[in-house]
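[job 0412] stage=fold_complex status=start
inputs:
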Amino acid sequence: MTEVSEVSDKEITALHQRLTREAEEGGYHINPDQPFVRGLVRGLIVNTKRYGYMSCPCRLAAGKKKEDLDIICPCDYRDPDLGEYGACYCALYVSDEVLAGRKKTRSIPERRPPAEARTKAPLQGTTSVTLSLPYPIWRCRVCGYLCARDGPPDICPVCKAKKDRFERFF
Amino acid sequence: MRGTVSKSGSARILICALFLAGGLLFLAGCTAMSPQGGGAAPTSTPTSSGLQSKIMHVTGNDHGVILLIGRSTCPWCMKEKELFANLSVDYYWVDLNVLDQAETAQVMDSIRICGQTGSVPILVINGEKCIIGYQEEQIREAVV
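[job 0412] stage=fold_complex status=done
writing structure:
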């Protein structure tokens, strides 16, 4: 298999701008280190062309969407990593402190469980509590957004994660 | 020492074989590269096909058998290659992006000691020590 390497500057700029706009709308921030981030954005485009989805540039993708859902950018681990380290694993997203220049990004420990643990572990946030509700509650695995409706929204209004990143919470 | 391409001798291949599950099959075809780090073109034409031809050898000062597993989509991996270039470290590099599923499984299986999260960069030193992520201080201590 050969790498899909044909990525133009125009494509990188377009995705970079979209991610920045969506991040700011949701209260998140893209890393201000332009050369570094353009490298990451290029990686996201390469992965999209290769796998059909924006798998994390710094993680090995299985190539099967179902197995890679947790590492589709923005990944399930972004928010806890932002809270603890000020950046997500690849450092595409950063905290207020990093954006303001009060803290530097660095390579951080991997929060993603090993493959075996991922397949055995129940969905995060599931509960055994039984409630009688007029609508089921859906939770965005990326940012924690909750909504009560028959099915999950096509796109999370907060973090823009797609429908398949939602889990039934209640 | 920097820039020599004489490190892929039989002794080194044997050491490689000892710590990689793929054994001689895995590293026997290591390809010599110029030592500039990320993106450097091979200085010799690969003579074998498959996984062997996809493992690149960057020559430099000998600090043990060092294998860097990464992805060319990952800027942290590129930073690690730049660090090795600055330190003139002799190492082997495999880019998971260019491997097929079976080759990837072979590489990942050979580094079980590092865990299986699939996050890169993964640095394996003499088949004993594993550093996951661009941990600059740890890397400097380990390779200098």
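[job 0412] summary: The mean pLDDT of chain A is 89.
[job 0412] exit 0
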